[in-house]
Amino acid sequence: IFSDVESAPPIEVFQMSKLYNESTNPNKVNLGVGAYRTDEGKPWVLPVVSTAELQMANDRTLNHEYLPVAGLPDFRTAALRVLFGSDHKVITENRVEGFQALGGTGALRLAAEFLKKVLKFDIVYVSSPTWGNHKGVFKTAGFSEIKEYRYWDSETRGLNLAGMCEDLRAAPPKSMVILHAVAHNPTGVDATKEQWAEIAKVCQEKQIFVLLDCAYQGFASGSLDEDAWACRFFANQDIDLFVAQSFSKNFGLYNERIGNLAVVTKDPKKLPEIRSQMEITIRVMWSNPPNHGARIVATVLNNKAYFEDWKGQIMTMSSRIKKMRHELADNLKRLGTPGNWDHIVKQIGMFSFTGLSPKQVEYMLSKHVFMLSSGRISIAGLTPKNVQYVAKCMDEAVRA
Ligand code: PMP
């Protein structure tokens, strides 16, 4: 029965991790996967996560019963508060509800299912370029048209706002768009507040439904509030809106698959119907979500002292990444590497879109520096020990 099954193409980012793990080269560096690393190049369990886990392990009132279909209530409300701020009008006016999902990916998948099956959307716009999984998730949910809007301007290594707005203005009726809320993956280029206002205006004029993908709250500026600016701004416009939230990065809970889909509605009277449709959509996908990650996040967000600890630990991560951006750019400057590398410092979040060509990336791989063929590197994979080597390889790649 399986004789006609052919191999699917490898998933590039996991392929890079595999090559990295298999490499015996002492200089090997993994700049593929978007996961935080310490100065020693090690994964980091946030101390506040360990504290919450210990507390959970000692709490004999907890059990392993099924969670409600929509998720752990304490988690869902706390996630919304961190996203919008507790006094945001969508919260005080009861116009938002969260649905626990399997990471940010699960939140996107749930959104896509609901948009296709319940709201009958068929056309989605994604940025060019975008995170590799956006297209796959929406295609799998049955969207017939996955269209791209211009985003990255390779000349300026910045945002092509005019191109983006022009493409969105040309969107057919009943289109929806995925906007990266903060720390755009893969380019590291975000809209300014003024540019966001222009983007929102186009979406409103053309009645494009907006899904904000918020996978890096806290990772861009180090401030949860600042990084939620675009989400809060859109929610302020009195529109219907989805936000897919991920706690993989800002809690370092990559393998716990903890995310939340925030549904903002103009009309709070519709929330019971929305909730029932969401629940039935969840029921056939994962039935009910896992507990562990949700309980950790809820424990931290609902305890003032832990919440403060968490904010400090987010700052530790975002500051280290910023420091490594500077070190990489400084090393390239020191080497006199041809070209301008200021964008490495200017770009935001976990990634840098280096501008290296596929051929130059091939050279990097031959030196056991693993990165994506698009030229994207995860800055979190740089350490004081490997940054010089990475810069040297980049220098050689550019000159080759
Ligand atoms: N959206 C974007 C833009 C991302 O970069 C990622 C993670 N790489 C996700 C969503 C999914 O996050 P998660 O790991 O929580 O599924």
TrEMBL record:
Superkingdom, taxonomy of origin: Eukaryota
Record field: catalytic activity: L-aspartate + 2-oxoglutarate = oxaloacetate + L-glutamate
Cofactor dependency: pyridoxal 5'-phosphate
First-level EC class: transferase
The entry's keywords: Aminotransferase, Pyridoxal phosphate, Transferase
Pfam families in the cross-refs: Aminotran_1_2
Signal peptide: none
EC number(s) on file: 2.6.1.1
GO CC annotation: cytosol
NCBIfam families documented for this protein: PRK09257.1 (NF006719)
Quaternary structure and partners: Homodimer.
Record family assignment: Belongs to the class-I pyridoxal-phosphate-dependent aminotransferase family.
Name under which the protein is recorded: Aspartate aminotransferase
Native source species: Elysia crispata (lettuce slug)
Taxonomic placement: Eukaryota, Metazoa, Spiralia, Lophotrochozoa, Mollusca
